[in-house]
UniProtKB/TrEMBL annotation, chain A:
InterPro entries: Longin-like_dom_sf, TRAPPC. Keywords: Endoplasmic reticulum, ER-Golgi transport, Golgi apparatus, Transport. It is found in: Endoplasmic reticulum; Golgi apparatus, cis-Golgi network; Golgi apparatus. This is Trafficking protein particle complex subunit. GO terms for cellular component: endoplasmic reticulum; Golgi apparatus; TRAPP complex. The keyword Transport applies. Pfam families: Sybindin. Its main location: endoplasmic reticulum. Part of the multisubunit transport protein particle (TRAPP) complex. The keyword Endoplasmic reticulum applies. One of its GO terms (biological process) is endoplasmic reticulum to Golgi vesicle-mediated transport. Belongs to the TRAPP small subunits family. TRAPPC4 subfamily.
From TrEMBL, chain B:
This is Trafficking protein particle complex subunit. CDD domains: TRAPPC5_Trs31. Part of the multisubunit TRAPP (transport protein particle) complex. InterPro entries: NO_sig/Golgi_transp_ligand-bd (IPR024096), TRAPP-I_su5 (IPR016696), TRAPP_component (IPR007194). Keywords: Endoplasmic reticulum, ER-Golgi transport, Golgi apparatus, Transport. Gene3D superfamilies: Trafficking protein particle complex subunit 3 (3.30.1380.20). Residues 1-43 are annotated as: Disordered. It comes from Tuber melanosporum (strain Mel28). Transmembrane segments: none annotated. It is found in: Endoplasmic reticulum; Golgi apparatus, cis-Golgi network. Plays a key role in the late stages of endoplasmic reticulum to Golgi traffic. It comes from the Eukaryota.
TrEMBL record, chain C:
Keywords: Endoplasmic reticulum, ER-Golgi transport, Golgi apparatus, Transport. Pfam families: TRAPP. It comes from Tuber melanosporum (strain Mel28) (Perigord black truffle). Coiled coil: none annotated. This is Trafficking protein particle complex subunit BET3.
Length: 135, 234, 191
């Protein structure tokens, strides 16, 4: 299972976490990532209303190309988890759920983390890396 | 160390030998509740429910709650304290005080539960083993990971916890790296020691290693009176 | 989802996905917090109530993510379902209790939670100073937790205690009212 990178967006669409898990990935500047996050947030909002079919659910969930697969999980609270993986990767749902749990544990339960602010929780990153790239 | 009155606690130091009481809290307020309630308590109790005195103390002995509940409560305790202190040492002191009040109550409960087999510890090793096994097991469901005596200082001992439960989800920001929220547990330990007449100071220190990033050492520094007594006892 | 299904989910999650700790530690920790507040505010119990509620609110904002991550619950269809979810899943998963949902108003916007047991208040007796029993709501943090969690899922509620065994009342009852649905930003999936 190859997860390439993870982005987490807060309710307002601000980028609060970004991490690559593979070498050789294209690195954007931190400003670019912020813009990317904000843009995605807007796109997500549009796609949640664009479908002509009634009750077709939330916004954009999967974006697949021949080079990567992006999956977006939005929680009921509006937080978005974006996972980038290799194409044709099964079971990304499992990964997303686990990342959400790690977020709930090591970010939410950290009294030094301010809500909606960028995530700088050492335990979160440690556990995340251990899960995604076990050695 | 005037703990008693600042905590409004029902703690009354017990010792058959008053000369050992040096170093223990000397001014402790009388039990406010029982003094007034024996004459004129105004407390109301519901007619159907019994009062807390009718419920058995062992009722909740094996009850469990989610670790998350503790984590959120503890986190809020830390946040509340942070707003009212200046600096890390102060914050650790506040956490220590919270732990202290819990330790006092816990000690009474544990000794009561041991019943007839409760042993009054008079030696340092004895009380430290009580803490590393009985006390630790009752709160954290596992004994402490290690106990060491300091080579350099006669009056210092170290209790080791490889992964303190209270720190499980906490990541201290880099600018506060000297803070260890296990000061809370240090307070519990300190209260148990004080209550068993081994006065001293307990502080928590992070000693992370590659394998154990959360490893914490509780440094226990006994008062001189304890060391003197220990040498007298041989 | 029905009450029985909610109960089953709560029981299931509690058994399989929750790390547990000694309840007495939590009880003592909560007690220490309340006692500290009473000292800090010098016996102004009304202020202590407010502070407890505020602390609960802060907790609620974070607790909701943990709740959602552990239970995988989707949106509730209506406020009645929300009530059952709170009582049978929420309280079960965090405090291992299942308060009863009762006393609905006819517009389905207000209900009560009746607590048979309250682990936060185990072995607590309020101070006998003539005021605490009239002014302090010992478990007020729970009201804030409800307010915070529901706000994060777009519901503005008011929660307050109507009675408390610690005060000599017959039951411990919390009254929860839906003030409004927050939809400045439409919840996902809605039209």
């Amino acid at each position: 299972m190859v997860i390439l990178s993870l982005l987490i967006l807060n309710k307002a669409g601000g980028l609060i976490f970004q991490r690559d898990f593979n070498e050789g990935l294209k690195k954007l500047s931190s400003n670019d990532y912020l813009v990317l996050a904000g843009t995605f947030h807007g796109v997500h909002a549009i796609t949640s209303r664009i479908s002509p079919v009634r009750n077709s659910g939330g916004g954009l969930e999967v974006l697949e190309s021949d080079r990567f697969r992006m999956q977006c999980f939005q929680t009921l609270t509006g937080t978005k988890f974006l996972i980038f993986a290799e194409p044709n990767q099964p079971n990304i749902d499992v990964v997303v759920k686990r990342v959400y749990e790690l977020y709930a544990d090591y970010v939410m339960k950290n009294p030094f983390y301010q809500i909606e602010m960028p995530i700088r929780c050492e335990a979160f990153e440690r556990n995340l890396v251990a899960y995604i790239k076990p050695k | 160390m005037q703990r008693g009155d600042s905590l409004n606690s029902p703690f009354v130091p017990f010792s058959p030998n008053p000369s050992i009481q040096q170093g223990t809290p000397t001014s402790t307020p009388p039990l406010k509740h029982t003094l007034s309630s024996s004459t004129s308590s105004n407390l109301r109790y519901s007619s159907s429910r019994k009062s807390i005195y009718d419920r058995h103390l062992n009722r909740s002995q094996r009850s469990e709650l989610s670790k998350a509940s503790f984590a959120f409560l503890f986190g809020e305790m830390v946040q509340y304290a942070q707003k009212r202190v200046n600096g890390i040492a102060d914050l650790e002191k506040k956490l220590n005080l919270h732990g202290y009040s819990i330790g006092q109550r816990l000690l009474e409960l544990l000794l009561w539960r041991e019943g007839r087999s409760a042993k009054r510890e008079t030696r340092i090793l004895g009380i430290l083993q009580f803490i590393t096994t009985t006390v630790y097991r009752s709160i954290f469901n596992k004994p402490a990971d290690g106990l060491e005596k300091s080579r350099d200082n006669e009056d210092e001992y170290m209790l080791i916890d490889n992964d303190p439960m209270v720190n499980s989800y906490i990541s201290v920001p880099k600018e506060m790296s000297q803070l260890n929220c296990a000061a809370f547990v240090a307070g519990i330990i300190e209260a148990v020691l004080d209550g068993c007449l081994f006065p001293g100071r307990v502080t928590a220190h992070s000693v992370p290693t590659e394998q154990l990033p959360a490893k914490t050492v509780f440094l226990i520094k006994f008062d001189e009176s304890v060391i003197e007594r220990e040498s007298v006892l041989g | 989802m029905s009450a029985t299904k909610a109960a089953r989910v709560g029981e299931d999650v509690w058994k399989t996905r929750i790390d547990k700790v000694n309840a007495e530690l939590v009880t003592l920790t909560y007690g220490s917090i309340v006692a500290q507040l009473c000292r800090d505010f010098e016996g102004d119990y009304l202020e202590v109530n407010k502070q407890l509620e505020k602390m609960g609110y802060n907790i609620g904002l974070r607790l909701i993510e943990d709740f959602l991550a552990k239970t995988n619950m989707g949106k509730c269809a209506n406020f009645r379902e929300t009530a059952e979810t709170i009582a049978k899943v929420g309280f079960k998963v965090f405090l291992n209790i299942t308060p009863t949902v009762a006393n609905w108003t006819t517009d389905n916007k207000q209900f009560s939670l009746i607590f048979e047991e309250n682990p936060l208040a185990d072995f607590v007796e309020l101070p006998d100073d003539g005021r605490a029993q009239n002014e302090l709501w010992y478990s007020n943090m729970l009201c804030g937790v409800l307010r915070g969690t529901l706000e994060m899922v777009q519901m503005q509620v008011d929660a307050h205690f109507a009675s408390d065994i610690l005060r000599g009342n017959e039951v411990t009852e919390m009254r929860v009212t839906l003030v409004r649905i927050i939809d400045d930003e439409l919840p996902p999936g809605e039209d």
